[in-house]
């Protein structure tokens, strides 16, 4: 077995182990309909790697949905800035049938992807910061998949592993901003991890979700790189001072 083949096999094994944890506590993913059945007719035109990419992508957005819910629980003032009846309505607007909005929302004044992430931490922004942050993450991630949610034989050739890798680095920057960016008054724009220490049972659920999302995206970048035999240019960044990479 060649080195490339052994590496791909190792990546697939890691993916299987990751999914066993991700999917055991998985939320419903309306973007791709109900829970995927064991077999669908369209699967005939898909390889094992195609199905794995779809499954990992589904887990990725389930984690993002869960993070968005938690952000609204910790920042109820954000959804209350809107006409929504509750946080669930805002989450549904983001994650139910996103093909209809392509992660572009009128309330964000045309901002999409990293532009929407920036908007969430802009001092002058008066809108729902949780919505802007989650919409920005969702739009950036989908751009790295060329806005595809289903992959057939040879479709992976259309994916750029560099975009997937860059988006993972952008996620690190976005999550750093989430936990560090403060307003002129010194308050965090958005509350995430519960302050405290391990002795006081500090809530690190946001950090764990962020880690899962980044790991999945990095894993997918490596899988696509190996499958398409394309190299990834590594980026050395200092998160606090770095800028978002192009997608």
Quick structural overview:
The chain has eight helices and no strands.
Helix and strand arrangement:
Layout (H helix, E strand, L loop, with lengths): L2 H20 L25 H27 L1 H4 L7 H9 L18 H7 L8 H16 L16 H20 L24 H24 L19
Structure description:
- By secondary structure, the protein is an all-alpha fold.
- Helix content is 51%, strand content 0%.
- The chain has eight helices and no strands.
- It has helices spanning 3-22, 48-74, 76-79, 87-95, 114-120, 129-144, 161-180, 205-228.
- Helix 2 runs antiparallel to helix 4 (87-95), helix 2 packs antiparallel against helix 8 and helix 6 (129-144) runs antiparallel to helix 7 (161-180).
- The longest helix has 27 residues, at 48-74.
- 36% of the residues are buried.
- Mean pLDDT is 82; it is low at 3-8 and 19-35.
């Amino acid at each position: 077995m060649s080195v490339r083949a052994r590496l791909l096999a190792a990546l697939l094994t890691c993916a299987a182990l990751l999914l066993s944890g991700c999917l055991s506590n998985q939320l419903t993913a309306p973007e791709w309909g109900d829970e995927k059945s064991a077999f669908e007719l369209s699967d005939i035109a898909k390889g094992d790697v195609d199905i794995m990419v779809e499954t990992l992508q589904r887990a990725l957005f389930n984690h993002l949905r869960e993070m968005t819910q938690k952000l609204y629980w910790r920042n109820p003032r954000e959804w209350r800035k809107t006409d929504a009846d509750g946080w669930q309505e805002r989450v549904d607007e983001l994650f139910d049938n996103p093909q209809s909005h392509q992660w572009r929302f009128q309330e964000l004044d045309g901002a999409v992807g990293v532009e929407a992430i920036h908007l969430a931490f802009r001092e002058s922004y008066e809108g729902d910061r949780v919505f802007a942050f989650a919409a920005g993450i969702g739009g950036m991630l989908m751009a790295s998949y060329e806005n595809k949610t289903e992959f057939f034989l040879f479709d992976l050739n259309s994916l750029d592993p560099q975009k997937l890798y860059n988006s993972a680095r952008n996620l690190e920057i976005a999550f750093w901003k989430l936990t560090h960016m403060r307003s002129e008054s010194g308050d965090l724009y958005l509350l995430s991890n519960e302050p405290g220490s391990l002795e006081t049972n500090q809530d690190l659920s946001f950090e764990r979700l962020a880690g899962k999302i980044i790991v999945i995206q990095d894993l997918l970048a490596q899988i696509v790189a190996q499958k398409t035999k394309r190299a990834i240019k590594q980026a050395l960044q200092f998160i606090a001072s770095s800028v978002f990479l192009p997608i």
